[in-house]
Each structure stands twice: as C-alpha cells, then as structure tokens.
Amino acid sequence: MFAKNLHIVCSSYYIAKRKNVFYPENILSAKWFAFYCMHFNSFEINATFYKFPTLLILTIWCKKSPDDFINCVKAPKLIKYVKKLVYCKPKIDEFFSLCRNGLNDKLGCTLFQSPPSLHYSPKKLALIIEAIRLHGILKMFHSKYSRIDLIKLHDFTDKKLFAKVFILVNTTASKAGVLNAQELKTLF
C-alpha cells in the first residue's frame, strides 16, 4: 500500500471539519485514529508541542498504532518558543531519549517548528534536525495546496535518492490538510 521510504503525514487526525470529507458520517470519533491508520502510514504527535512528552504517553501512541506505522513527534514549545534553543541541550537530549524509548522502531522524524523571532545561527542549527513542513500558502494552517504545487513536491522528492521521505501536511485548521495528503498519496 505504501512505499517503505515514503511517509505522508497529517499533523492531527481529530479535526471535526474532516467529517464527511475524510471520515464517513457514521463513524464514531473514537474510531477516527483507526480509520486514519487505514489510509496513512504515519502520524504527527503534535500534543508533545503543548506539553513535554512522557514515556507513558509515547508508549501508548506506539501501542495504539499498527505494527508498520511510523510516528513523527513535534518538539515541545518549551525548547523552541520559551528557551529559543538557548541552554537547552539537556532538554533536547531528554526529548530525543523519550522519543526513542517510547516509540522504538515506530519513531520517524522529529519536528522543530520555530517562532519567527528565533534567528538562525549555526550553533542552533547544530542542535536540531532540519525539517520541511507544509502549513498552507495563502492562510497558515487553512489553505489548500494546488495540484501543481503537489506535483512539484512529488517531482522534487522522487528525483532525490533519499533513504526516507517525510511529508508533513500541517493545515490543521481546515479540511485542506487531509485532502492534500490524500492527493499527494495518489501521486506516489
């Protein structure tokens, strides 16, 4: 169903605006994650952005996802927004350790979303993993990408010899994200 090295990821499965667009009308919201897992092979655990993760929480995500599933984890805002990557190496190490131990072989990429006020420096870059995220072009977290944009993204990733590719579509405030993720999946 999926190429082993391709992961098209939505940043949240529990969005009411996706009912009747992605989720069937008759499915209970308690079953949405299982339904999501039938259509995608990866998921972004973005609750870790709001609250520093615990081993228990990550272990629960590991257990509730299918065997061949990959979980991506969003780094906590404490690291990026509060501390702005200053004097936080122990917290970054703790975060990575929790992710590795809690998700084991189901750990995919980690995301470091930074506020606009966080300025680049080689030292800060050395602390994190580079990631590309799709948030929406016209209106952040709302806008749908055009088919042309998705084809360009497909062509770029298809021509490279990446060991793994994670495409995270983070338009969570509307139904656009899941629609773009489904369309992108058909291109691969």
Describe this structure in words.
It is built from eight helices and six strands; from the N terminus they run βαβααβααβαβαβα. It is an alpha/beta fold and 188 residues long. Strands 1-6-5 form a three-stranded parallel sheet. A three-stranded parallel sheet has the order 2-3-4. Strand 5, helix 7 and strand 6 (165-169) form a beta-alpha-beta unit. Helix 3 runs parallel beside helix 5 (89-103) and helix 7 crosses helix 8 (176-187). The radius of gyration is 17 Å and the shape is globular.
Within the largest sheet, what's the order of strands?
A: 1-6-5
- The proportion of residues in beta strands is 5-15%
The backbone outline, from C-alpha atoms, is globular
Q: Radius of gyration in whole Å, from Cα?
A: 17 Å
| First-last Cα distance | 11 Å
Query: Helical proportion?
Result: 25-40%
Describe the sheet with the most strands: 3 strands, parallel
What does the average pLDDT come to?
78
DSSP helical segment count: 8
Count the beta strands: 6
Structural class: alpha/beta
Q: Poorly predicted ranges (pLDDT <50, ≥5 residues)?
A: none
Please write the string of helix (H) and strand (E) elements: EHEHHEHHEHEHEH
